[in-house]
Each structure stands twice: as C-alpha cells, then as structure tokens.
C-alpha cells in the first residue's frame, strides 16, 4: 500500500522539524505523491497551493479542487489520489501526526475535528495571509540554528494551526446549525474519534467503543448525535468504508482476503455490506477505479 512513510523518510524532500512534524517545500513532494495511483495518509497534512491548480480525490470518491492561495486540509487515515496536477504547480506542506496535533492545539482540537470530520471542510482560502506564514516558515524551518529553536518552532506551529482553526470557525459560523453540545460532550466525542481512528478492526458494535470510553452505549449515541448530528454507528460505518476503499484501491488483496482482514463473516456478507453503502460491489469499485 502506498503511504506517506517513504516520502517523509526521504531527507531530500521532507525536513523533520520535531517528533511527528515535517515540512516540505517545493515541487518534490507533490510530484512524489502524484507518481502513485493513491496514497494512504498516515498523518494530517496542510498543503499550501502557492501556484497552479490541483484536483484531488479524497476518501472513497469526494473530489476537491484547489488553486493559488488556498490551503488543502487532509486528515489522517484518508485515502488521497491526485487526479490532476498542473505543470506550474508550487506547494508547501506541513505534515503533523495525530498525537502532535492534539498536543499543539490542546482544547482547540475540537475545532479541527468539527471542521474535518463533521463538516468535511478540506479547502480554505487564505491568499492574503498564507504567503506571510510561508515566509516565516522558511525562516524558522529552514534557517540556521536558533538558540531558542525548539520553543520558537512550537510557538510558531501553534500560531499557524490556530490561524487555520480561526478560518475554519469563520466558515462554520455561516452554518445555521445550532450547537447544543457541552464541553464534556465534545471531549467524549473527540476521544471516540481517536479510538475509532486507531482501531484496526473498526467494524464493531457501539457497545465496544462505549466500554472503552467507560460510558454506556446510549450515552455515546446521545453525545455523538448531539455533537455531530450522526450516530456512532454511522461514524463506525463510514470509517469501515474508508478502510475498504483504501484496501481495494491500493492493494492487490483478493475480495476474500479483504473480507477476512476487515472481520466480515464471509465474502458474501462483505459484498452486500459494501453494496449497500457504495451502491456497487467491491469488484465493480476496484475495476472502475483502476480503469
């Protein structure tokens, strides 16, 4: 399976800023990605399109476009497939692990989760301020040794991510949905997302996740619905399908092998489950995407 490991291990392309943080400047990163039919994102990515145009497929089939001055936000575990990259494209990318993202943002991690997982905001405008941030990024990430390098870097990263969250809040404010959830609700919901993201066999009952959060399934359902408008089972199903799309698109595993790995009782059950959600069989999805 294509993933971000090879890209981040290449010191000629990615500069490691700290544990769980990498900075990529120039064309090499997007060119490296575009050589793959699809890539599994192991970390969160913020891609600044400085010039040119990008057309990307994220997840199972959602397409997004980005042009000069826009930021592309890609959460961890997503399947990324470059569909079109203009010849004049120039990008800068910040790659951040889940653990480091939570550490830097602290209680504001809920803003990121809300935008990325609930509203599915993957592109934001920022032509006026992103170039300024890029100049500071180059000075800090690629400059010489700083006496307070670690402190300056972490402070700058927090500022950068909070500015992104501010833009996400501005977009969210245009929504007419009234948020009735409490801070405790949001905390539990964020813990549920982390737990779901790290679970290898995601297709489990709500009670499985509720038990690990030390709450009842009914309370987890109430929290998820109150915070996101979606039931925990819907979140589980969406996460399962994301994993199915990735295996079908980036591996040569047979349908039976994928069914077994995903924990389905048999390939027929897996096929029906997939068809109910995707509107096509696993084989039709794989064949159609690979043509």
3D architecture notes:
With 291 residues, the chain is α+β, with helices and mostly antiparallel strands. It has helices spanning 5-9, 28-34, 98-105, 109-118, 127-141, 149-172, 183-198, 206-212, 217-228, 232-250, 255-262, 267-278, 282-290; strands at 14-18, 21-25, 39-40, 44-51, 53-58, 62-67, 70-74, 79-85, 90-96, 123-125. The strands form two sheets. A six-stranded antiparallel β-sheet has the order 1-2-9-4-7-10, with helices on both faces. A four-stranded antiparallel β-sheet has the order 3-8-5-6. Strand 5 (53-58) and strand 6 form a beta hairpin. Helix 7 packs across helix 9. The longest helix has 24 residues, at 149-172. The model has no long low-confidence stretch (mean pLDDT 78).
Write the layout of secondary structure elements.
Layout: H1 5-9, E1 14-18, E2 21-25, H2 28-34, E3 39-40, E4 44-51, E5 53-58, E6 62-67, E7 70-74, E8 79-85, E9 90-96, H3 98-105, H4 109-118, E10 123-125, H5 127-141, H6 149-172, H7 183-198, H8 206-212, H9 217-228, H10 232-250, H11 255-262, H12 267-278, H13 282-290
Antiparallel strand pairs: 1-2, 2-9, 3-8, 4-7, 4-9, 5-6, 5-8, 7-10
Helix pairs in contact: 5-6, 7-9, 8-9, 10-13
